[in-house]
Design a protein that fits this description.
The chain has helices at residues 70-77, 115-129, 165-168, 225-235, 269-275, 284-291, 297-302; strands at 92-103, 106-110, 146-150, 156-163, 174-178, 184-187, 192-193, 207-211, 214-216, 239-245, 256-262, 279-281. The protein is an alpha+beta fold.
Amino acid sequence: MDSNRRSVRHLEPKNSSSETSTNDPQRSSTIDSGHGSLSTTTRTPTLDRATTDTLSSSLSRDTPLDDNNAQEDLQQNKTICIRPQSVMVHKCYEQSYVSHIDHPSAFFIQLECFRIKYEQLQMEINEFYSEKSTANTSSSWKRGDYCIVKYNDGQFYRSRIIATPEENKTINSYDVVYIDYGNWNKVRPTDIHSIERKFTTFPAQAIPCSLHKSLPIYGTWCENPDTMNFFEDLVLNKYVDVIFHSKSPRNYWPLSFAELKLSSSKSNVHECMLEQRLIKEVSNEKISQEFYHLLKSADHIIYSIPYEEEEHDDDNDDCP
């Protein structure tokens, strides 16, 4: 991945001159391509969540599969859903990893306590799909479908369809988000595989977050490039200690409010940015008021926001 490219910024007002389309392929080209414990050469899209709009999902897929149990697998795929990783509020998750950043109100974190389980899952996924001779090249993939995608490094990763060729006005590419990392990419149909149910029980590891009590001094994040650069330099691809904060009954913002401290120095990220006069301190409810109405259908997929037809099983073990 091109480490010099900047992430695409989401959830900015429509009249922002800096707004970039959700389908812009730049979003996939960030430096954050894997978990910190993996070598750069073996990582895929980014690696270090919270959890309406109607989207098409796996419920409507009508795709033949390339094996003897096609009809059985088809029925299974119709109900496939991968739940977000649950977290406990007010608990400190040390050595977490910031894997991808759109802006300080929308970035992704991976929890260290699930790293070993995830690496084992990745190993099993790659062993399974490296032996499959063909991908599902049917054109019936729908926005919201879960799948396995072969990345540029030759490895396979859990993904979700953001847009079809018809929706992103391309001849032969789908936009997919890598649900364990947070970034997205344009991929060919030949690189998309139906996901086996056994690879869907482990929650998505990219946790979408907003920086606790923080908004730009003025305007939008896109209008404050110095703030964006400072935040990225401070935490992107770095280890942080994170505390997730609870929300009031009036706060409908679906991303988790995260208080970050650098694991190396224990410096509080919010306080550092306040000292530099790069942000203003606001209530988390104010963040919700600023951004909630800007959420689009693609954001529900990218930030793992459940929608009406989708059900998540929350009986999920948290970190020990």
